[in-house]
Amino acid sequence: MFEQCPKRLWLAIHRPELAQFDEGAQGRFDTGHKVGEVACALHPEGVMVEAEPDLVAALEETERLLAEGHPGPIFEATFSHEGVLIRADILEGDGAGGWRLAEVKSSTGAKDYHLGDLATQLWVMGEAGVSVSAAAIRHVNREFVLETEGDYRGLFEDADLLDEAALLALERPALVAEAREVLAGAEPERDLGDHCNAPFPCEFSGHCSRALPPGPEWPVEVLPNGAWKKWAKKGVVDLLALDETTMPKPREALIVAATRTGVPYHDREGARAAMAQWSWPRAWLDFETIAPAVPLWLGTRPYGQVPFQFSLHLEQEDGSIMHHEYLCCDGSDPRPGCAAALVEAIPPEATVIAYNAGFERSVLRALADHVPEHAAALSAMAERTVDLLPITREHWYHRDQRGSWSIKAVLPTIAAELDYAALEVKDGGMAQESFLEASDPATTPERRWALEEALKAYCARDTWAMVVVARRLAGQGD
């Protein structure tokens, strides 16, 4: 924390109530907890050092285990030196009186910032008289495939970083002295910068930005895909300071023009022509998926996308529409049922339409690989899948999109009554959290039903939104 930003450490100690965590923080915490839980479960002979009733008890328990010659593994072994307290994820005896240290991470490889954590642990343990013969980041092995239920042997790989961490540990006394000096003083001054989001978003960014003067209503950062950077280098901060008539790139020019005038850019003829190539019926499709670090079903890998839900609006040439959906929250592998429901609902001649269709194609192809009895039909669906996103990007822009063509940015500019804010489940992250809660055997039937209904409403909104956007692009209802 101190190495990312000294001010962040000061605030965490002195003003923790100012923290505002981003929407993904709880998900990252839950993933890390699950990964750590599985890593420990692979060593059933190990002992956990509990911080009960407090960390002093954990320090005393660790000292007792080492004094009694416990062979390990020891989980959450706790040490302290000069006010720095660490809890080692896994300590394993090396058979020669020393210990192998493993810090468990949910990433699929060792990261640069992991080295600092490891160095701090080595320094504290060394000062406590603990001999460490190996120090590794124990990370998830992306190539692991769950072949037997509950058997996670092979899920982890060790990146041995003892030499690098030991060298960095030599600098820890000076770093700790600097951190102690910062904590003893007033709140540090620090400008906002890249460090506010690397390696993780800082929970105090809102506090640090509170005193900044208000920026322009339409900052130049509205220009997407990093296009704003070239203008920022020239000192441009306000999008409306640009002259759309002289800008070399048409898309950037139309963003400036639409922002200045408040009149949306809308090429109806171009949109109609682009969509005229799509055959009937049209299957508007959206998946919700889960990509757990610890595979849940046989044949899956860490962070592999598994569809647990889809919504499908099947539209005929006469404008009639029928809605189909699939949702599996009973804890079983959702893929076979999902594949069968897709094949039943989507006619073989239908054009499949998605928003940012590369994702839906990849899900369909993965389903084809896993459910061979439907492989031909699913592969054909993937080949027939077209994308509404580039058509929207080429033929529509409203300034309230603020440089984004995501469906959630576009929809309020076309059909404000379909805004996601009124839904219980509002985005993909919430959908994943709701699915995991609904699939938990401890969830009550009443709560599971409520979660399922919220998930259905959210996914159905995604596909109906595509229908509405496409109709508006074509000029229907103008």
- Care to count the β-strands? 13
Helix content: 40-55%
Largest sheet: 6 strands, mixed
| Strand adjacency order, main sheet | 1-2-3-4-5-6
Low-confidence segments: none
* Discrete helix count: 17
Structural class: alpha/beta
Strand content: 15-25%
Morphology: globular
Cα-atom Rg, whole angstroms? Answer: 27 Å
Distance between the termini: 54 Å
Instruction: Please provide the ordered H/E string of secondary-structure elements.
Output: HHEHEEEHEEHHHHHEHEEEHEHHEHEHHH
Mean pLDDT: 95
Brief overview, please?
The protein is built from 17 helices and 13 strands.
Keywords:
17 helices; 6-stranded mixed β-sheet; alpha/beta; 478 residues; single chain
Write the layout of secondary structure elements.
Layout: H1 6-14, H2 25-41, E1 47-48, H3 55-67, E2 74-81, E3 84-93, E4 99-104, H4 112-127, E5 132-140, E6 156-160, H5 162-169, H6 172-184, H7 205-208, H8 228-232, H9 250-261, E7 265-266, H10 268-275, E8 282-290, E9 306-315, E10 321-327, H11 335-345, E11 351-354, H12 358-370, H13 375-383, E12 385-387, H14 389-395, E13 396-397, H15 407-414, H16 428-439, H17 445-473
Parallel strand pairs: 1-2, 4-5, 8-11, 11-12
Antiparallel strand pairs: 2-3, 3-4, 5-6, 7-13, 8-9, 9-10
Helix pairs in contact: 4-5, 10-14, 11-12, 12-13, 15-17, 16-17
